[in-house]
Amino acid sequence: MTAIALRIESDQFDDAFFEAIDAQITKAPQLLLDAPLVLDFSKVPEFADSAALADLVAKLRTRNMLVFGVQNTTSPQLEAADGLGLIPVRIGRDGPAPEAKPARKSKVDRLLPPDNKVITKPVRSGQLVVAERGDLTVIGPVSSGAELVAAGNIHVYGPLRGRAMAGCHGDETGRIFCRALHAELLAVAGLYRTSESIEDELRGQAVQIFLKDERLCVEALG
């Protein structure tokens, strides 16, 4: 199962918009409920309202639509998405595709030291934890519906049942490590895999996830 792309064709997220979404969910719940979702902005290059985007993402998630990324974005859109922990994804699970580049960071930003983050308690469903400029380490379990996002690597000393996205600013050397793999979605530098594409023999195992030859690889540890 690959992610579903929701093409945004207007910047008006009114009642009619969400009624149409609800109608589609009613028509095909097995396709849309708990499905990983990417927002496609190719039709609205002028849209860059971060508050409206945050409201849209929140309302989609209350409908059990697992929004995790964006595609076909402008730099302002990508900046707004980044603030919500959404990653730029490449079209297709393992194939590269053109994508908008984030605005260049200032010289001061580029010189800032890594800011690694360590979480010493369980990450619950619905929680988003972001390490904007470094690695993210979680000592404990990550529940289904939780999201981990890091500029660098992600380490989970416990079962990983939510979504983990390393190298969120495009660092292709980013890796994900966990003690027990049950993840809903894994991504490194915009390439992603959903739970259905993970080999059965790797489920529940200690693994590392990394990019090799533009493919996202999952490999057992030990």
From TrEMBL:
Keywords: Cell cycle, Cell division, Septation. The keyword Signal does not apply. InterPro entries: CAP/MinC_C, MinC, MinC_C_sf, Septum_form_inhib_MinC_C. The keyword Cell cycle applies. Residues 118-219 form the Septum formation inhibitor MinC C-terminal domain. Pfam families: MinC_C. GO terms for biological process: cell morphogenesis; division septum assembly; regulation of cell septum assembly. Signal peptide: none annotated. HAMAP family: MinC. Interacts with MinD and FtsZ. Belongs to the MinC family. Cell division inhibitor that blocks the formation of polar Z ring septums. Rapidly oscillates between the poles of the cell to destabilize FtsZ filaments that have formed before they mature into polar Z rings. Prevents FtsZ polymerization. NCBIfam families: minC. This is Probable septum site-determining protein MinC.
